[in-house]
Amino acid sequence: METRATMAKQSYRVCWCFRRRFKMRAAEAPREVKELFERYDSGGKGVMSVEDLQRFMSEVQGAETERRSRDEAQAAMDALKHLNIFHRRGLSLDAFFRFLFFSDANPPLDPSLSVHQDMTAPLSHYFIYTGHNSYLTGNQISSDCSDAPIIKALHDGVRVIELDIWPNSKKDNVDVLHGRTLTTPVELIKCLRSIKENAFVASSYPLVITLEDHLTPDLQAKVAEMITKTFGDALFYPETESFEEFPSPESLKGRIIISTKPPKEYSETKVVNEGSSGKVMDSHDEAAWGKEVSDIKATLDAFDKRNDLDAEDHQDEDDLDETDHISQQNAAPEYKRLIAIHALKPKGKLKEALKPMPDVDKVRRLSMSEQAFEKLIKNHGTEIVRFTQRNLLRVYPKGMRVDSSNYNPLIGWMHGAQMVAFNMQGYGRSLWLMHGMFRANGGCGYVKKPDILLKDGPNNKVFDPRATLSVKKTLKVRVYMGDGWYTDFKHTHFDIYSPPDFYVRVGIAGVPADSVMKKTKIIEDDWKPLWDQEFQFPLTVPELALLRIEVHEYDMTEKDDFGGQTCLPVSELRTGIRAVPLYSYKAEKHKSVRLLMRFDFV
């Protein structure tokens, strides 16, 4: 089997005596792009002037001011000069099309838009990019512990790093590992030094380190010395033991914050005995791109139908965010002094933790597994929303996710949970949603929660995540065409006997009423597919909506192949015709693969 190709034709060897030949067409502007070029070619001579392009930027691309449309028009001209297709008289149709589709100056999110949200509100007013078991290189049972995934997470903009700290084998030093599993340890000091070197590479906003502490007081004192010497002036020391209101990200810029959490989560994971192989199926073994994101409405409805009396009130001991098994009274004082955000132990049932503490006007942090959280939201969704207006809530993957898979993060975000903790070393659709959310606000790792989650409505009512609201706006998405696979993939990657048969899945991840996926028709045997199809997505809570885009290659006999993906915050989408770069299932950006799409709000 072999393949030969030119820009004119391509042939695939089926057997020693037979080849299949396919024509390869050059990428051509879609019909609507041609019509827009004709409309804005004021001279009618097949050339769009700078002034024509400026009008296009304002009227089609949504440039809000004359200066902005002028700047974007100039950026287009600069991009075309780089592509060596600029003509001194203006833009030809081919140049106009190449600017829209092939230059890097026309992305769906504004590259000049850095941190632009108000960063002076309390920490509880933000979604925070949060990792779970940040030191693991793979599954939760038998993978290595290392500082490498911590470094990668920090470079990706993650702002909450989790370390489980245990005595080493000699009980005279401290390791980081997933306790009572077959994971191999890494020294704590190595992780701390890597954190110091990389903490603010991607974002200058505060980094939180959550410590799951399994130490004796003497080792706690040793950890305190390590942390103090390693982080120096960057370490944030609380002035009081607890806050009446959390400080703001702006006031904590460049600071490292220490937080505690319970040493109980590890017990949710089944203990692996020494005789076990520890082999765990990775989440992407099931399919290259992982399972479909769980449907929030189906999850909520499933809990409604359950008859078990414990669904509302029962919680495992591990689901409560309590202090260490070593009492706070016995903890090393120099260690206690470092802890800025305490995880307090609620008395009684989990739902009681959501209630205001009598005679205490202090904010606090609560943590629970996704399983406990799903139980709690059945009857206490609005109470969670009210709790998260002032307090921090952390939701972490259930212990059965030994393959380092993840859950649907929207179930936490739509209830106001700030720290939706994810296994960043995993792959798949849930993690793509996490990436999409934190592409917002300049990728700084902090995204301001929408007002509906922060402010009370009429009659002092808070947002009800399960209520069906009226449509605020509709997002119109047109998928024109795609290109780049022929450059970035082997020519037999998708099909050994013919060019690929691509289709696009496009949809919304958001509150239940808004969540949906749709797909285009399949274009057969074409490396440069032209779909030219439009979809409409009514949005009741556009502030929480994420636009999901996936490309697949249809396979009649096996599972469809994967052609790329991206996820974009709807709140920051630029309207107009945009070139949308795609990423692999591991979230690595493809060099050439992209879609030409149009976005409009009505």
UniProtKB/TrEMBL annotation:
It comes from Stephania japonica. The lineage of its organism: Eukaryota, Viridiplantae, Streptophyta, Embryophyta, Tracheophyta. Pfam families: C2 (PF00168), PI-PLC-X (PF00388), PI-PLC-Y (PF00387). This is Phosphoinositide phospholipase C. It is a peripheral membrane protein. The keyword Hydrolase applies. The keyword Signal does not apply. SUPFAM superfamilies: C2 domain (Calcium/lipid-binding domain, CaLB), EF-hand, PLC-like phosphodiesterases. It is found in: Cell membrane. Transmembrane segments: none annotated. Keywords: Cell membrane, Hydrolase, Lipid degradation, Lipid metabolism, Membrane, Transducer. Residues 367-453 form the PI-PLC Y-box domain.
